[in-house]
Write a structure and sequence with these properties.
D-Maltodextrin-Binding Protein, domain 2; Fructose-1,6-Bisphosphatase, Chain A, domain 1; binds calcium ion; alpha+beta; 287 residues; 14 strands; binds D-MYO-inositol-1-phosphate; globular; seven-stranded mixed β-sheet; single chain
Length: 287
Amino acid sequence: MMTLNSQRTGLPTQIAQRLDTAETAAATAAKILIAGRIKGGFSTSFKSPYDLVTSIDLASERAILEILKRECPDDLILSEEASPTLGNRDQSGKSGAAYTAPLWVIDPIDGTMNYAHGLRETAISIAYCEQGIPVLGIVECPFVQETFIGIRGYGAWLNGEPIRASVTTDISHALVATGFPSQRDPQTLDKTLARVRKVLTSCRDIRRAGAASIDICQVACGRLTAFFEDIFPWDIAAGTVIAEEAGAIRGRFHDRLSDDYPATLDATGYMISAPGIFTALTELIKK
Ligand code: IPD
Ligand code: CA
């Protein structure tokens, strides 16, 4: 498998340009996250009782959007804090129609709670999509100096070197990650904890690192075997192209909960897994 640098010259122009733009935006945002941590004193507030946002999320987002708007002025942008929806229907009421144009999907900080507490599992997630399908993804992890990149049809890389998902075929050998949603009503909690129980009794162990985009990239490079959670497009768009290009399989452990986003970006019931345990794990979590 080729390194990212040897692959660059073979990329179509519109992808090569977007890759440059995404790398510049991710590197710029990474500096903001690092500076914010060194300096400290950033502000925090809650969007809902368990959903934190910091002034560094907003500063990172501003810097990313400025670069994208300058370099790709005609592209649409879905971004967690500034534009979490584009509106999803055309005049005939067709769901997801607004998402077919060239589109960026951004999480300016994934793992905000980790960031605010000084933990290292924090990333910037930037995806570029065509027809609603992520075709380019970068997950930048500034505190561990890891950059994951995936380009549909070309490969997936960690710091420029090719990566592959785990080859395990035995669910009892699987190390599976998940996350806990910010909705903490009793019904949601019961369902979440029931899934955790199933995984704990059938797999090797479970992990909750606190940044979904990183969990997905850990599946891409085989450190984790699978990841599942009810989440949002900006948490999964970049990671998905990276993990799929590394051989992982994407699926759903329950039907979509809404049609706010096209199915390709909707992350309700999201699951990504090493291919050899995908079916067994989906059946386990679903049942
Ligand atoms: C969160 C993280 C976390 C996941 C939450 C997400 P944020 O994203 O990815 O791991 O469990 O569901 O909301 O809020 O840090 O961008
Ligand atoms: Ca975020």
